[in-house]
Amino acid sequence: MRLLTFVYRGRKSIGIDLDTERVLDLGLAAGFPSSMRAFLESSGESLEKAKRLISDPPKGALIQRRDLHLCPPLSVEDRPKIFCIGQNYAEHAAETGSKLSEQPVVFAKFSTALCGPDDNVVYPPNASSLDYEVELVVVMGKTAKCVSQDEAMDYVFGYTCGNDVSERQFQRGDRQWLRAKSSDSFGPIGPVIVSRDEIPDPHNLALGSRVNGETRQNYRTDSMVFRVPRLIEFISHHLTMEPGDLIFTGTPPGVGLGMKPPQFLKPGDEVEVWIEKIGSVKNQVVAPA
């Protein structure tokens, strides 16, 4: 199932992406939560009910995709914790001059960084080295505390596509990565959350990025150093993970910092990240208001 969050005629809702033209608006069907987090917290009940609804949608619940404004599938109102993994592709670590770690490198983004497909990425004041990072994003479906690798995938609801926007000057100069990774609009995700049953192996997906139509990253998730079960095991032994929490699983090579000479984003650029079976997120870089 492909779930999405959108605004339709001034009303925010969640729904099912049926095809390129139609969306089933769950806000117009009785008994469904009004937010994505509440949907994920329902222990699979809402998912099973939604599957049954597809074959017999209620009258008026089918709407045209062209009439929607897509939002990030999960946003600040859903209160997700956002766990990010650094140096999870050996070639990316090499292109940035970093050493691979013996255990996952975990940092965080604030949920206020999240934005959706077609939203603007804001070039921060005093920035000079704005970069893009396509990443497979894991969406948690159950509360996970001290889970093993063997059981870890049972806690995954599905996956979405993310761009771990990073300001490299801030990243190098600050003692913490807060500004560099969590500035407003530095977390585009979407366009949908694809349930786990439709992507049985998250380590067998093509992913990439484009800047102004030029391919920058083009790789596969099978090159991850630490795979999804290991990441869930590692994080959950230190931090409780809850439904709706996100794991940005790291980026492959091809970022602007790794180019010779480096090629960073600037206002007016269009950056697109994409993942096989999920879709793409396209954002315009704009100067601050």
Relevant terms:
7 helices, twelve-stranded mixed β-sheet, 289 residues, five-stranded mixed β-sheet, 16% helix, alpha+beta, globular
What's a quick, concise take on this entry?
With 289 residues, the chain is of the alpha+beta class. It is 16% helix and 33% strand.
How would the blueprint of this fold be written?
Elements lengths: L1 E7 L2 E7 L4 E4 L10 H5 L4 H11 L6 E3 L4 E3 L10 E5 L3 H6 L9 E5 L4 E2 L5 E2 L7 E2 L2 E7 L8 H4 L3 E8 L2 E2 H6 L4 H5 L4 E9 L10 E6 L2 E7 L7 H9 L9 E3 L21 E6 L3 E8 L3
Parallel strand pairs: 6-17, 8-14, 9-19
Antiparallel strand pairs: 1-2, 1-5, 1-14, 2-3, 3-4, 6-7, 10-13, 11-12, 11-17, 12-14, 15-16, 15-18, 18-19
Could you characterize the architecture of this molecule?
With 289 residues, this protein is of the alpha+beta class. Helices cover 16% and strands 33% of the residues. It is built from seven helices and 19 strands. It has helices at 36-40, 45-55, 90-95, 149-152, 168-173, 178-182, 228-236; strands at residues 2-8, 11-17, 22-25, 62-64, 69-71, 82-86, 105-109, 114-115, 121-122, 130-131, 134-140, 156-163, 166-167, 187-195, 206-211, 214-220, 246-248, 270-275, 279-286. The strands form three sheets. Strands 1, 2, 3, 4, 5, 6, 7, 8, 11, 12, 14 and 17 form a twelve-stranded mixed beta sheet that branches. The longest helix has 11 residues, at 45-55. The chain starts with a strand and ends with a strand. The relative contact order is 0.20.
The global form is globular
Characterize the biggest β-sheet.
Answer: 12 strands, mixed
Kindly provide the radius of gyration, computed on alpha-carbon positions and rounded to a whole number of angstroms: 18 Å
Q: What pattern of helices and strands is seen along the backbone?
A: EEEHHEEEHEEEEEHEEHHEEEHEEE
Question: Helix- and strand-based class?
Answer: alpha+beta
Strand content: 25-35%
Distance between the termini: 38 Å
Low-confidence regions: none
Q: Give the integer mean of the pLDDT values.
A: 96
Residues in helix, % = 10-25%
Q: How many strand elements?
A: 19
Tally of helical segments: 7
